[in-house]
Design brief:
The protein has nine helices and 17 strands. The protein is an alpha/beta fold. It folds into two domains: about 110 residues, Translation factors (Elongation Factor Tu (Ef-tu), domain 3); about 170 residues, Nucleotide-binding domain of ferredoxin-NADP reductase (FNR) module (Rossmann fold), CATH 3.40.50. A seven-stranded mixed sheet has the order 12-11-10-9-13-14-17, sandwiched between helices. It binds FE2/S2 (inorganic) cluster.
């Protein structure tokens, strides 16, 4: 490989040397597929330039995707074995540009970051997934892991809501693979239904209150808009869930991802270094927000 740079008088042999000195330098990766999930959410399949997965992601871990001249952002990913998947909601310039990428296009990728979901803690327990909108994206990595290792976990219950039926992501996967999984209950709700809608109508916390999932030997994983998380936590506590058994992921707060920018702190902890997956009990210790 040709020399690419000189840094502090040291000759660098290639991009790996550059990355050793500066971990913010991404690797080049390519898009192999772009799936439209909803009117504002797409899932990108990503591999390295050699066609292989550049690194593996445990459920709940995140990675930084970047586009030259546009910017970079942290996204939770799914490691599908032969590619990584990132589900991205269009909310700004970077995510808008990522929605325009096509198979074959080059993107920047760095990671993996974060602690991921505590798999050993979850093993042998029932799992209650509570998600709103694109909040299902980070939980999906764990749902898929549980399906793959089904006998390691107890009953699974997904309570998932969005504004309208058209805003529900991963509908094909839910209606295809997930409904067929043994002891996997799925409760869907929307704020506003349409003529074809046959599930619940109303907010996720209200549905939780109605369904009354039992807290016994159950870990609850919550992710979605802040108001949904906050109101769901109120209901979960009413139902008897202990703060040690409720987990959430806060990767949206991560910027640099490596403890350098100081923009992700909650109280004394850094989301990028201590999270992004947290127990509610720990968040209560760090901040009065919870
Ligand atoms: S994301 Fe930069 S310090 Fe945590």
């Amino acid at each position: 490989m040709p020399e690419v740079a000189a840094f502090s008088g040291q000759r660098l042999a290639g991009v790996d040397d550059v990355r050793r000195i500066n971990p913010l330098v991404p690797v080049q990766a390519q898009i192999t597929r772009a799936i439209t999930e909803t009117h504002d959410t797409k899932t990108l399949y990503v591999v390295g330039l050699d066609g292989k997965v550049p690194f593996s992601l445990n459920p709940g871990q995140v990675a930084m995707l970047s586009l030259l001249g546009v910017g970079e952002g942290m996204f939770s990913g799914v490691d599908a074995g032969d590619h990584l998947e990132f589900s991205i909601k269009k909310v700004g310039a970077l995510t808008g540009a990522l929605h325009e990428v096509e198979p074959g296009q080059i993107v920047g990728l760095r990671g993996p970051y974060g602690n991921g979901f505590p798999l050993e803690f979850c093993r042998g327990k029932n799992l209650l997934f509570v998600a709103g909108g694109i909040g299902l994206a980070p939980l999906r990595s764990l749902v898929r892991f549980c399906i793959k290792h089904r006998s390691d976990f107890g009953g699974i219950h997904l309570v998932y809501g969005a504004r309208t039926p058209g805003d529900l992501a991963f509908k094909g996967e839910i209606a295809g693979e997930w409904v067929a999984v043994e002891d996997f209950a799925i409760s869907l709700t929307v704020d506003q239904g349409d003529r074809d809608w046959q599930h619940h109508v109303g907010f996720v916390p209200n549905l939780l209150r109605e369904l009354k999932p039992a807290p016994d030997n159950t870990v609850c994983l919550v992710c979605g808009p802040p108001a949904m998380i906050k109101n769901s936590i109120v209901v979960l506590e009413e139902l008897g869930f202990a703060a040690e058994e409720v987990l959430t992921t806060l990767e949206m707060r991560m910027k640099c991802g490596i403890g350098q920018c100081g923009r992700c702190n909650i109280g004394s902890c850094y989301v990028c270094l201590d999270g992004p997956v947290f127990r509610l009990a720990d968040l209560k210790r760090y901040s009065s927000e919870y």
